[in-house]
Write a structure and sequence with these properties.
The protein is mostly helical. The protein is built from 7 helices and 4 strands. A two-stranded antiparallel ribbon has the order 1-2. It has a two-stranded antiparallel sheet with strand order 3-4. Strand 1 and strand 2 form a beta hairpin. Helix 3 crosses helix 4 and helix 6 packs across helix 7. The longest helix is centred in the middle third of the chain and has 25 residues. The protein starts with a helix and ends in an 11-residue tail after the last strand.
Length: about 220
Amino acid sequence: PRDTMMFALEELFKLVAPTYGPNGRGILIDRDYKQEILDDGHKIIEEFELKDELQNAVIKYIREASRKTNSRAGDGTTTAFLIMIAVLREVFGVNTKYLIDSELRGLTKNIRVGLEEAVEKIKAQAKVVETEEDLFSVAKNSFANEKIAKIIASAVFAIGKDGSVTVETSDLLETTSKVVQGMSIDKGYISPFMTVTLQNGIPTAPENGVIELNN
């Protein structure tokens, strides 16, 4: 039912909305074993549950959508959720009880058209990140700490858009970054007998005349 869905979404909205933006506030999560302050909408959606089964089913659906958003875009889960709430409030502002199926299909079509127009406008306003200063501005907005933002910007700028960033725990008191060029393999073959040379599709033995195949 519409009321059940909107109640669940509005309850989740109360916790997710305050975390939006660089000036967002944190939400205290009380678990049996520890307490934690979360300022990430995606993490809050992952933790949020309701006692009512139907209402919680709505939350599970939103949780799956949040995971897909986070997987594809890497960010923007809170923004996507707030936009969804705004659209649903607008749609359910109309008395949909008396709408026929054809009108509902038209409403869906209009939402898709509006989505395409919004995407085009966002693309037109988009700015290509080219310098380390641009990366620093993005990092600072995402994480309100200039020192950490500089480290992130420097690392991402050094490896380029196709590079890979790995976050590891350290025993040091300070956060540091290290750029590794190329690819490294920790270990090679355990034994030279694990390699077999093929000649015309037929295995040939190494110089010592022994072939040893290990599964």
